Amino acid sequence: METINYQNFRIEAENICVDYNGKVALYDANLRLKPGQICGLVGMNGAGKTTFFNALTGFVNISKGKIRINGESVRSAQKDQTIAYVPQNEGIDSQFPISVWDVVMMGRYGSMNIFRCPRESDIQAVKDAIERVDLTDHLSTPIGNLSGGQRKRTFLARAIAQRASILLLDEPFSGVDIRTEKLISELFIQFKNEGKTILLSTHDMIHVREFCDLVLLINKTVVAYGETSEVFTPENITTTFGGISPDFLFGPES
Amino acid sequence: MELCSFLTLDSFITDPLTHEFMRKALLMSSIVAAVCGFLSSYLTLKGWALMGDAVSHSVMPGVVVAYALGLPFSLGAFIFGVGSVALIGFIKQKSRVKEDTVIGLVFTGFFALGIVLVSKIKSNIDLHSILFGSPLGISLSDVKQTIFISLLVVILLSIFRKDLMLYCFDPRHAKTVGINVFFLHYLLLTCLSLAAVVGLQSVGIILVVAMLITPGATAYLLTDKFDNMTVISVLSAIISSLIGIYVSFWFDLETGGSIVLAQTFIFLFAFLFAPRYGIFKLKKLFAGYK
């Protein structure tokens, strides 16, 4: 048996299963990502993309399998601020009375004291992050007054301020303007050079070819995984989106 | 003769203050309103209005049992408040019944139990004051309990102010950066139970949910900043309480109902005239004239 040196991998998910009250959302899923890799997570709605993210962040518990983040447990990855999650625009309450500055500051909460009093370094980190996403003119703008693209950049800034080495992005390109799309793609190149690992879910095939070194096609389990040039084939995509659902094969209780 | 007093606003305000029970009622109701108003920002943003209704109704049997046993009523109320939440969570998890249905059936069940207990336990429990509040007849031991619980809730909310805001806004991020979401969930529920306990003295079990959601809803229409929302919520709650008590004194009206009505009117005012989010967007109107 080959032994795996976990230190080589940022993300190491082995045969993970997630079920919600007996309903299987994801089973036998595997993923290994190294520093500097960008991986696209592609699948239909309900194929388990968000569930995969939730498992990696520890927001849901896995019922089987193992997840290692930088060779450590998900729990210690949380404590170390290793993973940042950038939600879909639809996944957040845009009417929440909170400003760009406050949202980005939330990226620092995990490393602050219990009262979450920002130190000089936290303020600097937030300033820098906001500058990198080009929102310096909107520091105190309520997020409800931002465009979709600006809101997306706000949450990207939160991930930057967190100084996470792994970024999970849920549909980063949906509902954003050209300017934001360009800015995000520039940031991706910077992140890659900084050795960050990126896992992003997307519906857009063009973005996968453009940005992703690797692609993970899922439909409740992994359909195909590997280098984008090899794996992202019409056959595999058809299987991912049009194939028989595992419910048919194993029954919904499997 | 009372009509003459209305001629001067001064005596409208000062005359009731000559009565000790009025001074006490005004002070206690303001404290209660401040606590409920503080919590209100979180509950309205989290979407826990129904949960607030459930907890406040569920404390009924706890209050009755505590009175019958001679225990502090807040203890009984708290146990049943938290118990109802635990039961809601348990039934939801173990059955296919939808959450709002579970909440509805659990709290009505508890409430019914309370009413049955009142009819069975022969004591000097005043059903009316439990259901509709009695800020004018609050006893000294109740005053002490209320102040203690209010302080506790305010301290807890102050310490975890930012974490609770994050929990309401984006629990997934909170979890991802290692913040104990489970703890925050139960902290908020605990504060909700405690606030319901103190709130029911002012306006009674049936209307206490208004204390827990209306000030927050009003503030939500008036600001885009969370801190401002909390301040406005607390202030509008206190002002409503004062207005309600004065009005009920001068016109001989039910006090709890008056307080809640005052809150409702302030909400309606914000609903119509809030600068940005009101029906008549005043900000736009004025901007047009410039």
Describe this structure in words.
The complex is a heterodimer of chains A (254) and B (290). Chain A is globular, with a radius of gyration of 18 Å. The two termini of chain A are 29 Å apart. With 254 residues, chain A is an alpha/beta fold. Helices cover 35% and strands 22% of the residues of chain A. Helix content of chain B is 82%, strand content 0%. In chain B, helix 3 (20-46) packs parallel to helix 9, helix 4 (49-58) crosses helix 12 (181-222) and helix 5 runs parallel beside helix 7 (99-120). Chain B is globular and about 60 Å long. Classes of the chains: A alpha/beta (254), B mainly alpha (290). At the A-B interface, helix 2 and strand 5 of A face helix 10, helix 11 and helix 13 of B.
Question: Can you summarize the main beta sheet of chain A?
Answer: 6 strands, mixed
Low-confidence stretches of chain B: none
User: What string, H for helix and E for strand, traces the elements of chain A in order?
Assistant: EEEHEHEHHHEHEHEEHHH
- SS field, number of helical segments of chain A: 10
Q: How would you state the average pLDDT of chain A, rounded?
A: 89
Task: Pick out the low-confidence regions of chain A.
Answer: 244-254
Number of helices of chain B: 15
Over all CA atoms, what is the radius of gyration of chain A?
18 Å
Number of strands of chain B: 0
Oligomer: heterodimer
Strand content of chain A: 15-25%
* Spatial separation of the terminal alpha carbons of chain A: 29 Å
